[in-house]
Design a protein that fits this description.
- The structure is a single chain.
- The chain has helices at about 1-30, 50-55, 65-75, 90-95; strands at about 45, 100.
- By secondary structure, it is mostly helical.
- Strands 1-2 form a two-stranded parallel ribbon.
- The longest helix has 30 residues, at about 1-30.
- The N and C termini lie far apart (about 85 Å).
- InterPro entries: RuvA_2-like.
- Keywords: Membrane, Transmembrane, Transmembrane helix.
- It comes from Sulfurihydrogenibium azorense (strain DSM 15241 / OCM 825 / Az-Fu1).
Length: about 100
């Protein structure tokens, strides 16, 4: 009976060690998470500098809209505010991906 009790105790310790190691390794990446090198604004496309191909990569902007943005930019000059693009369909969704940098 003594051997059986020792085996149960060893199993219990093994289970506790496994649970402890699992918890330690599952939270370790959270402790050492790297900060991004870029801010959210750095990842946005500047509509004053973007070409047709770049604008087409923006969600909700297709070939026609990208072309219209470039034509509008050529006519009126550089945009001063992202709000000047309110005429774009799905503007509320698109504006999250665009920015207007000050010149």
């Amino acid at each position: 009976m003594k051997v059986y009790e020792v085996l149960i105790e060893i199993q219990s310790i093994g289970i506790i060690v496994l649970i402890t190691l699992t918890l330690i390794f599952s939270y370790t990446p959270l402790l050492f998470k790297e900060k991004s090198k870029y801010s959210a604004d750095d990842l946005k496309i500047d509509v004053n500098k973007a070409d047709q191909t770049t604008l087409e990569k923006v969600p909700y902007i297709g070939e026609n809209t990208a072309s219209l943005i470039i034509q509008d930019r050529q006519i009126r000059g550089y945009y001063k505010s992202i709000e000047e693009l309110k005429w774009i369909r799905n503007f509320e969704k698109v504006k999250e991906y665009l920015k207007v940098q000050e010149r």
